[in-house]
Amino acid sequence: MALVQETDFGTPASDAAASVTLTIDGVGVTVPEGTSIMRAAVAMGTQIPKLCATDSLNAFGSCRLCLVEIGGRPGTPASCTTPVAPGMAVRTQTPRLAQLRRGVMELYISDHPLDCLTCAANGDCELQDMAGAVGLREVRYGYDGANHLAAAKDTSNPYFTFDAAKCIVCSRCVRACEEVQGTFALTIQGRGFESKVAAGMDEGFLGSECVSCGACVQACPTATLIENQVIALGQPEHSAVTTCAYCGVGCSFKAEMRGEEVVRMVPYKDGQANRGHSCVKGRFAWGYATHRERILKPMVRERITDPWREVAWEEAIARVAGEFRRIQAAHGQDAIGGITSSRCTNEETYLLQKLVRAGFGNNNVDTCARVCHSPTGYGLKETFGTSAGTQDFDSVEHADVVMVIGANPTDGHPVFASRLKRRLRQGAKLIVIDPRRIDLVRGPHVQAAQHLPLQPGTNVAVLTAIAHVVVTEGLVNEAFVRERCDPASFADWAGFVADPSRSPEAVAQLAGVPAATIRDAARLYATGGNAAIYYGLGVTEHSQGTTTVMAIANLAMATGNIGRPGVGVNPLRGQNNVQGSCDMGSFPHELPGYRHVATEPVRALFEADWGRKLNPEPGLRIPNMLDAAVGGSFKGLYVHGEDILQSDPDTHHVAAGLAAMECVVVHDLFLNETANYAHVFLPGSTFLERDGTFTNAERRIQRIRRVMRPRARYADWEAIQEVARAMGLAMTYAHPSEIMDEIARLTPSFAGVSYARLDELGSVQWPCNGAAPAGTPVMHQDRFVRGSGRFLITEYQPTDERANRRFPLLLTTGRILSQYNVGAQTRRTANTIWHEEDRLEIHPADAEPRGIRSGTWVRLSSRAGETALRALVTDRVAPGVVYTTFHHPMTQANVVTTDFSDWATNCPEYKVTAVQVAPSNGPTEWQLRYAEQANASRRIAADAAD
Ligand code: SF4
Ligand code: SF4
Ligand code: SF4
Ligand code: FES
Q1: Does the pLDDT value for residue 246 go beyond 80?
Q2: 771 Cβ partners below 8 Å, 6+ apart?
Q3: Atom of ligand 4 nearest to the CA of 61
Q4: What pLDDT does 172 receive?
């Protein structure tokens, strides 16, 4: 395997339709109007020397190395900043240009350490390459003059080093931070010889606003900004293109390796979701793959109080199959089930649901999407006809108005956030509907036109009030509704929302948002041009999560904002493969492709292919499995890549359900919290150790590619296959591509998907079939999948979870950039430097009367339970609202969340919990016990590693 090479065209592509023909060194070339001479030259295979230009950044024209001669024009213009013109005759190689370029290089090199042989970037340094390209042989100025060779290094960032002595002040890093990332953490300080790159107020990278995305490292043409791993390990020797295993943005990376060791992950420029950008997690936080706490051998035990015993895979698999068969014989076919993971591949998810349906003979399969985006699936299917977002990420570049509801993209979906911020800097308007003042509300060069800081639990009231304004102020897109939507449902809905009881004035007080703000937001959304909605778990994790999704869909249809670039309804998926795990038939009532198990012809199709009779009755959802376990009828569970004890609501109830089972199998990387209740532990593999596909929030199916052998012998799909075989279900896949072939054979929306197609196109967005062989970037273009769009009534029902005298505050939860979900991976990386513990955000008006200051330990209690954590006093949250993240098991925020859930899907109501907050002396008793237990688990893993 060689290194995957990418061409640097020097400047960004022009999207102009018109083209221009010119000659470069006597050869004709035709390129889009607005293309730079530099890019046109690269397109025809001619490299013009350059240093300050790279095609991810706008041309800057500072290094003067890319000079060219143009027939009929005086001087030697920079080819990076000069656009092509019809008939232009460019010369890139003349004696005059060669002399000028050598002169420029001499100046650079006279102030640069001459340590190429020992430099970590040796062989991957554009300065070195350019010295060669211009034929530099000597430096007339010598090396003794004033220079920067003694400038100090900044090693504050855990992942990369800034060696100022090697900086050529080309400003690529500064521009990457501004243009690509949108953080504006870097500046060029001083002038002339004194010019230097400074992070923040020259306080070092770690102390500055830097979010460690790595864009500056990637842009740097020298060894000034370089990954610590490259310094430690040397230059990579081979690479493969793969997909980030963290969030639903689905960034594409080149995994650059030495042997089986990852040297670095480099965002892939051709990645169709990320366009060459990344965040700190995907770029740097993959060290968990080789963390010493990873469990690499299967383990079993009789009782959950017994110590674990390492066994061979054969024994562990036989134990799983034997126990599951025994339980079914004793307690019935329905007494066992499985939970698929939204972090595992489509192929693995498909296999596990097949194991349950065809091997266990029931439909007791569910997914962790149950606790996040199940309302999206249900709400969008009912209104549009398909359970998925409508757009690709490129679409945001055509949006004029963006409404972000219940999402915090800069922390949860950072690469999408960077693309959104760029669009906002270009002039698009932003509406934020969120109880918290997220970073997008006011950030560098970005300011929301409207922020609606609504009370948690009032989404439906606010969105219906926005619809009221659209209908009563005549802002409905009548033509769209007439041509594309169901007229009867529209008439019912319009009458419903127009009722004065649903006006902004009627709901302002309960929502905590002034009526005028709601009206302004509605007018902006309906009349501002292309309007797109992006939303997250702040929409779905409510007792009315599904109703809110429907309200969003209603609004988009009423204003005609569906079916073209720049508009749409876009759920931002939390985990990398939430979309895929739902597509693959992880819900108890649906076979792959969202087809109901009760539909006879669909079942017949799978029965013929799988050679097994399938059960037509929908199975149990996760909460029902746990209830049945407590009730005594559900006895065995296979949990794949999911820590339900930490991620599901009402921790005490989850623990009781798990403890009541006779065989819990945990298939994961680490001994997670759920494993405390497991009888068998099957070691999992990371995304670096297996082949497969993930489907991101845009419905984009992308490859992950194996770059190292599975450290625990089996990739997850192989282990599931072994369990299936042991249970008598024939599975004979030799490679995940064969599983995808089966998925394509049985699932119409995946009919055109194959590994060959993915390798050819890079990725495809489903539906991908005969009608759309290259996939479908934007859905519902001419008609909705269900035919005509269906408006649904969205009656606001206040949640039963209300603040009262005992629990006067409302808790809502979210994520932070550097950590991921329950933190199993990110807590085992240097990312903890940014977030060591969960904190409780509380408004000064609530903190002061309680005697709480930032850093004070507080007890957070609800009717479900209590935990303790430190406070952070801030006006980011409104009075009456408190907020925390849920990344650390020591906090276990879900100890306090309740068992209320969405009426349609059982998605838990994580975002509204009535709580009390009071100063405390430190962790609660259970937290101290937990800390002890966690240390013991760590010792087991460490002993095993030794
Ligand atoms: S750090 Fe690198 S990218 Fe930034 S100015 Fe210096 S050489 Fe250029
Ligand atoms: S790592 Fe990202 S945020 Fe930090 S300075 Fe570089 S570009 Fe800016
Ligand atoms: S934005 Fe999401 S997919 Fe992209 S690198 Fe970050 S965590 Fe990975
Ligand atoms: S590359 Fe054109 S001026 Fe630097």
Answers
A1: yes
A2: none
A3: 3
A4: 98
SS3 684: coil
Confidence of residue 942 (pLDDT cuts 50, 70, 90): low
Note whether 79 and 132 are within 8 A (CB).
no
Q: Choose among 464, 531, 446: nearest CA to 504.
A: 464
Report the separation in Å between the CA atom of 356 and the middle of ligand 1, taken as the mean of its atom positions.
Answer: 54
Rounded Cα distance between 274 and 272, Å, is 6
Residue with the nearest Cα to atom 6 of ligand 2? Answer: 216
Q: Is the peptide bond before 767 cis (omega within 30 degrees of 0)?
A: yes
Q: Which residue's alpha carbon is at the smallest distance from atom 5 of ligand 3?
A: 282
pLDDT at 580 over 90: yes
**Residues 750-788 as b or e (16 or more Cβ within 10 Å = b):** bbbbbbebbeeebbbbbbbbeebeebbbbbbeeebbeeb
| Residues with C-beta less than 6 Å from any ligand 1 atom | 167-173, 197, 219-220, 222, 224-225
Q: Which one of the ligands is nearest to 821 CA?
A: 3
Residue type present at position 658: L
pLDDT of 939 reads 62
Q: Is 218 in the pocket of ligand 2 (CB under 6 A)?
A: no
Kindly tell me if the per-residue pLDDT of 61 is higher than 90: yes
Task: Indicate the pLDDT class of residue 155, thresholds 50, 70 and 90.
Answer: very high
Helix (H) or strand (E) holding 918: strand 913-919
Computed over every residue of the chain, the mean pLDDT equals: 93
Flag whether pLDDT at 943 surpasses 70.
no
Phi, psi of 741 (to 5 degrees): -60, -40
Best residue among 268, 415, 887 to mutate for probing ligand 3, ranked by most atoms within 8 Å of CB: 415
Taking the centre of ligand 2 as the mean of its atom positions, its distance from the CA of residue 175, in whole angstroms, is 10
In angstroms, the CA 704 to CA 828 distance is 22
**Dist CA 179 CA 165 (whole Å):** 25
Q: Looking at residues 363-384, what average pLDDT do you find?
A: 86
Ligand 1 atom with minimal separation from the 174 CA? 4
Contact predicate 262/286, CB 8 Å: yes
Q: Is the pLDDT of residue 657 over 90?
A: yes
CA 111, 116, 120, 122 dihedral sign is: positive
Closest-CA residue, ligand 2 atom 3, reads 210
Q: Is the CB of 67 under 6 A from ligand 4?
A: no
Alpha helices, H only, 426-486: 459-472, 478-484
pLDDT value for 337? 98
Read off the pLDDT of residues 206-216 as tens digits, 9 standing for 90 and up. Answer: 999 999 999 99
Q: Is 225 in the pocket of ligand 2 (CB under 6 A)?
A: no
Residue 448 Cα to ligand 3 middle (Å): 24
Q: Is the CB of 336 under 6 A from ligand 4?
A: no
168 CA closest ligand 1 atom index = 7
Which residue, chain included where needed, has tokens 């749409």?
A: 568
- pLDDT tens for 472-518 read 999 999 999 999 999 999 999 999 999 999 999 999 999 999 999 99
57-74 burial code (b ≥16 CB/10 A, e <16): bebbebbebbbbbbeeee
The more confidently predicted of residues 815 and 681 is: 681
**Atom of ligand 1 at shortest range from CA of 197:** 5
CA-based end-to-end distance of the chain: 32
CB-CB neighbours of 836 under 10 Å? 10
Q: In angstroms, rounded to a whole number, what is the distance separating the alpha carbons of residues 364 and 332?
A: 13
Separation of alpha carbons 493 and 553, rounded Å: 12
Please name the residue that has the structure tokens 């009071």: 918
Burial of 936 from C-beta contacts in 10 A (0-12 / 13-18 / 19+): exposed
Q: Could you give the CA distance from residue 91 to residue 104 in angstroms, rounded to a whole number?
A: 19
Q: Categorize the per-residue pLDDT at 824 as very low, low, confident or very high, splitting at 50, 70 and 90.
A: confident
pLDDT reported for residue 745: 97
